[in-house]
């Protein structure tokens, strides 16, 4: 930990930090007789591995063998950190390269090589490790972020925009050769230093990658090197261990890596500031230059050929991995009950608070499906110490986990699914939906992180306002149940020993071999406008949009017939109030709730109103109540449900450019 070098006579701290020291670095001449604990562990003031500032407010990584400490604010900056019920797994247990590539499932699997100085880790092997990293041992390195290069050796930028391939006034990245027109990025020209999005995200060059290289102001030793001063030349990044010994011995620093130049077959040490990736069919640098030198023409041909070879190797490896992964579902941790994350708590009732049903042990099926058990009717599970039926009680399915046998299957268009192995009666308990129990703040964080990493599968289900079950990382077989607009199961919220839990119950008799489904409806978070492939006759087309019910279809048919009769008899009646076809809040169509106020045409999605069920009785939409005090509104925004009463209308609305229609401050 002190001199950053390996060797013999290493002494391990037996405290929380798991650090290793040379005896001479500690000023010791021989191994101590007693258990060795370092100064930081003795004082209880550990240094944050990210910001390097000491303090008692740092927290330890939950992995037993790790020993790294962080401020919570510091570790939350890393997308590769994973927060769990017992704390967090720090970024050094997730591959940074796989995370940048959005390969989340692969990122935390396999053997890692970790940076000694910062929270960076990579999978071992050339596929992930950033070019320019320095190995200290087989599993420890110093990553390329710790280069000591000064401003004089900064990036050599290209003279054209990476978006439109034209020259002009360019915005140049300080860390790599990338250049852009500010207008191509839809930004203003920034002041001071600026880094491109790839550099900000931590994207690094890797070994066996074809690149364009420019040596810049290196010494001219032959005609080839003269060309290299002003031309971008194709090359391949090499692992330092694979180049000749005389090249390995050339002066270089952390962040430098050797490249093999095509055409001339020479080697040189460069850094990220003079290199950018080669793209398939890339000839934008070759136009007009092939006649200058035969070596350059040969280099272009060799680069194109080598690029195709590496591409074929990569595609073959990916195809094997996809084929292997298609045999079994993506990895998750199987759990039997909900696991609490963060501030969420599981409620436990006192025995005196648990309701007692009126069933008797002598009943044919006490507390059973067809019994008149009061607890079952009110969706309470009986407690074995309270229920009069005792051991014969049949209303303890959650606690005893009485699930019918089911198996995970691969479906045609909907990924993995769940199929029952035996027939299930209508109303029978199918499974409990379990996972990590998180609050709304953690839920939004996870959805945001999922979107950033292009994750499209969500397993989140709302229990109460601030309690959400996420069955993504951890769960049981219920997480594989697909959506259907005409499902054979439904979710029900039951009270079990004082805590609300979610169960899946059969809506009809389900024969053996049938896939189990439920309607995700408006309870599931994170799906957005995902296309539905359930194949039901009443399919709504999208997840989260309610399908047309049989009642609605019959109603439409009645209205249609009534209109036909009206037309035939030529009866003039007052026209029924017409409502808008799209939600006044979000502008999308679907299953809508209509405002009952006379002459109001507005309609809304339940989700946009933060409701889970249609309002009972006559209902007026929020457009008719003041946003501030809820009194009757007199001024209305014509583009959204914002409105204001007489006392609060002053300055709240302005005339828009659209025919002078009034709009609130939420609109341009």
UniProtKB/TrEMBL annotation:
Annotated Gene Ontology cellular component terms: chromosome; nucleus
Pfam families: AWS (PF17907), C5HCH (PF17982), PHD-1st_NSD (PF23011), PHD_NSD (PF22908), PHDvar_NSD (PF23004), PWWP (PF00855), SET (PF00856)
Organism expressing this protein natively: Gavia stellata (Red-throated diver)
Residue intervals of the PWWP domain: 207-281
Name the record gives this protein: Histone-lysine N-methyltransferase NSD3
Domain PHD-type as annotated: residue spans: 158-202
Start and end residues of each AWS domain: 352-402
Example of a GO biological process term: regulation of DNA-templated transcription
